[in-house]
UniProtKB/TrEMBL annotation:
One of its GO terms (molecular function) is transmembrane transporter activity. Residues 1-28 form the signal peptide. Pfam families: OpuAC. Keywords: Signal. This is Osmoprotectant transport system substrate-binding protein. GO terms for cellular component: ATP-binding cassette (ABC) transporter complex. InterPro entries: ABC_Gly_betaine_transp_sub-bd (IPR007210).
Length: 306
């Protein structure tokens, strides 16, 4: 029996209060679990953006087809909520991205300087102490990307992020609400590229960001490098010429005790990672962004070879 949505929401709300309270204090005591996990189904949580919801469904479908009872809760929140929920057993699995996951779990590291194998080993070591196993990473990779309208790029001769330096004080930037505190978003743009934008606007979604770029509401926006709209919208992805972004291979993070209970879960997830390429991820995004499928429908079609 899966936890009710209300029960899960209450547990996550309590967890968020605990997490924020710990962050404000001078010591980092190990918090107690917000709720007892249920082990009659595997609960996969997704982050609050569309691609991650698609990935959660792709991995969930693999588990179901291998006889593992799985449910997915979408858009639970940002990493500040979901990562502690996984470590405390409120949720059982998350599909994550190597570099960002390591930077969050071990803030003192510099993942941009490491290979995918090195990132995986460091993440496995870090999360293993918290009862979380890092499974096989996929070849599929999605990094933060920063785009401008094609007309803007042509007018200003902009092709690389470093080209924005003299223009930034007069530009309006759009990205997710958490972007100002993220090391691979505005924080990194400031530290690595010296970019100080004149204005910053919180965007509700990546789709809204693309629309704002096209309409001229913002000048620079964060989009995923695997976004399907990059191929159809009049926008240009700027080159990360100073290597701000780390390798971001898709990687499942799963409670170790859940893997022990469901022996078929790990090989099911590994089979996805063995097959999932960056191009496949772009096509999955296209199925939802442009073709109008739900994440679950896109995942099922992918598994059926459509």
């Amino acid at each position: 029996m899966r936890p009710s949505r209300a029960r899960l929401a209450g547990a996550l709300a309590l967890l968020l209060v605990t997490t924020l309270g710990t962050a404000c204090g001078s010591t980092a005591a190990e918090p107690s679990p917000a709720t007892e996990p249920t082990t009659e189904t595997v609960l996969i949580a997704s982050y609050d953006f569309q691609e991650n919801q698609i990935l959660a469904e792709v991995y969930a479908e693999a588990a179901r087809r291998d006889g593992v009872p799985v449910v997915v809760d979408h858009g639970i929140g940002t990493r500040e909520v979901v990562a502690p929920a996984l470590q405390q057993g409120v949720v059982h699995a998350v599909i994550d991205y190597l570099g960002t996951a390591l930077a969050f779990a071990r803030p003192q590291t510099e993942p941009g300087e490491r290979s995918p194998g090195e990132l995986h080993a460091a993440l496995r070591l870090t999360l293993g102490a918290h009862g979380v196993t890092v499974l096989r990473a996929a070849a599929a990779e999605d990094q933060n990307g920063f785009a401008v309208a094609r007309s803007f790029a042509e007018a200003h001769g902009v092709q690389r992020l470093s080209d924005l330096a003299p223009l930034a004080p007069q530009l309006r930037f759009g990205g997710p609400p958490e972007c100002p505190e993220r090391p691979f978003c505005l924080q990194g743009l400031r530290e690595v590229y010296g970019l100080e934008f004149g204005e910053v606007e919180a965007m509700p979604s990546r789709v809204a960001t693309v629309e704002a770029l096209v309409s001229g509401r913002i000048d620079v926006g964060l989009v995923e490098t695997t976004a399907a709209r990059l191929a159809v919208a009049p926008i240009v992805l700027l080159a990360d010429d100073r290597g701000l972004q780390p390798h971001e291979n898709v990687v499942p993070l799963v409670r170790t005790d859940v893997l022990e209970r469901y022996e078929r879960l790990e090989p099911a997830f590994d089979a996805v990672s063995a097959r999932l390429t960056t191009q496949a991820l772009v096509e999955l995004n296209r199925a939802v962004e442009l073709d109008g499928l739900t994440p679950a429908e896109a995942a099922a079609r992918w598994w059926d070879g459509g």
